[in-house]
Amino acid sequence: MAAKLDRIRNFTPHPITVFLDDNKKNEYPVDPSKYEARAATQTQKLCSKLHDESPVYEAPVYTGLAKPLPDDVNPKRDVLLMSAISAEAARAGGYEGLIVIPDSGPDSSVRGDKGQIIGVKRLYVA
After folding, report:
1. 53 to 45, 48, 49, 50, 57: CA distances (angstroms)
2. Are 92 and 85 in contact (CB under 8 A)?
3. Please, are residues 120 and 19 in contact by the beta-carbon 8 Å criterion?
4. Which regions in the chain score pLDDT beneath 70?
5. Which residues make Cβ contacts (< 8 Å) with residue 68, sequence separation at least 6?
6. 119 and 110 in contact (C-beta within 8 Å)?
7. Whether 102 contacts 29, CB under 8 Å
8. CA 42, CA 40: separation in Å to the nearest integer?
């Protein structure tokens, strides 16, 4: 499924630049919107304690998003850009539209002069 880049709504707190080639010349910046997707979780049971008695719990279950998506989100038109955890939570909450997540792995992340990630080459469908 092809997604139009101008329909991506960035629900992360950071601007994300998608580089469409390896030369850093064909780039598409996606500024964050006013809404920030955050996962709602259900805390799981304590499964052990570390040697210093710090509690360790089972991985949380994502139950949906902490705040509802904005009213103007159209699942048939909009492409939502979120973190992987927020995307998983949105799916758990029943969202059926297209969600993409940035691939920040070593083969896709684009780094600046000081080594910081300045963008990605790929987005994954969540």
Report:
1. 15, 9, 5, 5, 12
2. no
3. yes
4. 1-6, 22-25
5. none
6. yes
7. no
8. 7
Q: Which residues contact 34 (CB under 8 A, 6 or more apart)?
A: none
Per-residue pLDDT, 4:
58
| Angle (nearest 5°) at CA 44 between 53 and 91 | 140
What is the rounded (10 degree) CA torsion for 3, 17, 84, 97?
Answer: -20
Q: Nearest CA to 5 among 29, 23, 34?
A: 29
For the chain, the straight-line distance linking the first and the last C-alpha, in angstroms and rounded, comes to 13
Predicted TM-score (pTM) of this structure: 0.81
HEC profile of the chain: CCCCHHHEEECCCCCEEEECCCCCCCEEEECECCCCCCEEEECCCEEEECCCCCEEECCCEEEEECCCCCCCCCCCCCEEECCHHHHHHHHHCCCCCEEEEECCCCCCEEECCCCCEEEECCEEEC
- Residues 18, 93: Cα–Cα separation, whole Å: 27
**Structure token pair of residue 76:** 């048939």
